[in-house]
Each structure stands twice: as structure tokens, then as C-alpha cells.
Amino acid sequence: xxxxxxxxQRGNTLGPRLALAFLGVALSxxxxxxxxxxxxxxxxxxSLANRQRDDLAAAVAVAAAAxxxxxxxxxxxxxxPVLELAQRSGLKLQVQDANGHAVATTPGFAATGSQxxxxxxxxxxRVGMVVLGLTASGLxxxxxxxxxxxxxxxxxxxxxxxxxxxxxxxxxxxxITRPIARLITVTRAMAAGDRSARAxxxxxxxxxxxxxxxxxxxxxxxxxxxxxxxxxxxxVAHELxxxxxxxxxxxxxxxxxxxxxxxxxxxxxxxxxxxxxxxxDDLQTMAAADAAVLRLTRERTxxxxxxxxxxxxxxxxxxAAEVELDRQLDTAPVLADERWMHQVVxxxxxxxxxxxxxxxxxxxxxxxxxAHAVLEVADTGVGIPAGELPRIxxxxxxxxxxxQISGSGIGLAIAAELAVAHGGTLTADSQPGHGAxxxxxxxxx
Length: 445
Hints:
alpha+beta, Helix Hairpins, Heat Shock Protein 90, five-stranded mixed beta sheet, four-stranded antiparallel beta sheet, 10 helices, disordered N terminus
């Protein structure tokens, strides 16, 4: 039995670990809130009990003052009603004279614990003191009961909050881990060679949906690049097959003595060799352009001069093809690598020449538009169908009109990549049957 990948084991426990993490955070918050609520509630209950005890002490002091005798003092005072009231109220009470000696005391009184003292005043003169405390019944019992009820309520609320946090954590973890598990499965399938694996539409957080969409886009791009590579192999094989077959047949005919090595036969073989050389040059140019994108040497130059030099280099080909080359070159200073910008213009002119029939015209113009220098190559050729326009700058892609024309399909792709490397853009516009216009836009120097 195959071992389970360590990443798969971790992936299977992601949901529970997330749920435990959510639960831990929630329990920490609930515990903190419960402790704070218990502390503040205890303080508030104690404060309320103290205020009530102080109020009772004041009331008892008034009652004791009413019992005090003007003639006999505390000796003639009847404090029985006061003591009975205190006992019925769950209070422990001691009445003292002005010297602090006990005059009357409830059973079980002890001068310990939290107590309230209040002076006994008669006609504004202090004649004694009452000392009041709480017992286990009455107000003291109410205080204890209230504290207990509050603590139970806080504990119950904390428990319910913990359960709610657990269920919420499980739900959120499931919502997060389900799309993650789907992405892991799709990624493993693609790594195993299933290029058709896609995440599709996922339900989950927006970030994970965006990740799934990005993954699918990446997979589509990989498929497209694989198709381009397959097409390249097929195209190269197709292009190589004919000249190799002609060379093989021609050499075998010469070796067998079927044909004579006359100039016509040798010229035919030379044409096939040149055809092979052009294909190799195209592939080498593509590799060189990739490297050039990374290390361009840009200097101040005039785009009109580059365009003029490129037009001069192709002038004889235009004459041989009976295609008019019209130049409208105005000054347009740019910062560019002159060698590779010459390659861009040459590719554009060569592409226009391929698709312009004899008697047609190709126009190359340079101008300044705002902060940009613009080079346009317009032809009167067959044009480009609207469905092919988005793909004409893809490497090794060739449209229907190029099927019968030699070439590798990398010229426009190289031109577009070099334009971007120079900080510019290369765009195309065409109406089928009315030619095409390519526009190179670069920042002015």
C-alpha cells in the first residue's frame, strides 16, 4: 500500500485545526470577558451592600438616639426594639456610649469583618456610636445569593458562547477547507499529468474564488503553451520535410547518375539549403530576442532614421515583388536599442510585403503624437480577419492567409515583445480585403 503524502495528511486535518484555532480564540475572549464581568459584578454587589449597610447604620443610629434619656443617659435607654429590628433584618449590632463602651449588643456580635459605624447624635451632640455588620441571613444572605446568581449566569453564558464558537468555527473551517481541498486535488491531478483538471466555480471566500480562477487561468495558459509547442514541432517538421526530401532525392539522383550536376540542379538544391537556413535563422532570432528583452542598450536615436534604414534594406525585395514602398518619415526621437528596433521595423515591413500582392502599396510613416513617437506600417494587402486579430502576436501562430506563404510565425511576436521591452506597444487594425495597419508607439525621448 502506498504511503500517504505528508502534505495530504496535513490537508486532511486542516479543517479540525482551523476549528480548534477558532475555538481557542473564542474561548480566550469568552474567558476574559467572563472574568472581567465577574470581577466588576462582585465589586458592584459589594458596593451596593455597603451602601445599604451604611443606610441601615444611619437609621439604627437615629433609633438609638430616640431611646437615649436626657436624664439617665444610656442607663435609662430602652434599646430592645432596636436590637430586635437588627436581628430580624439579619444584622449584628452593637451600641456604644461616648467612651466606646458597649451599651447593648445583639447575640453573636463580633468586632470583625466588614462593618459600618455611625455616631449617635442628640441635639447635635455625639452621645455614642452604633457598629453594624451583616450576618449570614438577611441582607448578607441576599448579597451572597446575588453573587452566586451572577456567577452562574456568567458561567452559563460563557458555556453557550463556547458552544456557539465551536459550531461557528466548524462551519467557517468547512467553508474555507472545502475549496482548499478542491484546489489541492486539482493541483495533484495536474501534477500527475491530467492537464484537463480545473477547479471550476468554488463556493467560499472571495480570495479563494480568485485563487481558483487564477489557477484555472494558469492551467489554460499551460495548455495553450503546450499547444503552441506541439504546433511548433508540427510546423517545423512540416517545413523541414519538404526541403530535406528534395535534398535527399536530388543527392540520390546525382549519386545514381540519373541527373547531371548542372547549374540548374545545383541551384535547386541550393535554394532548399537556403530555405533550411532561413528556418534556423528564425529560431535563432527568437532566442536572441528573448535574451535582448532582458538586456537592451537604449540610446537616444531618431525613429525616422531607423525606419529609413530598414526600408532601404528591403527596397530590392519590394522592387522584385512589384510592390510600391511609400515613405513618410518625420522626426521622432526615442530612447531605443537601435539594432533591435531595426529588427522590429524590418519584421513589420517584411510581414506587409508577404501579404501585399503585386501592384499594391506599403506605406511606412513616423510622427509625434503628444508624448509618444508613432511608427505605422500600412499595406493594401488581403487584410486580417477579425477573429484572427487577437492572436497575430502569438508565437508560431499563423492565420489562414499565411498557410500558403513560407514563414515560421514568429516575426510579429518578436516585434511585439521588443516593443513592450522598450516601454511601448504594438497594435494592429485591419479590414479584410482592405489591408492592415500596424502601429508601434514609443515614449518620446
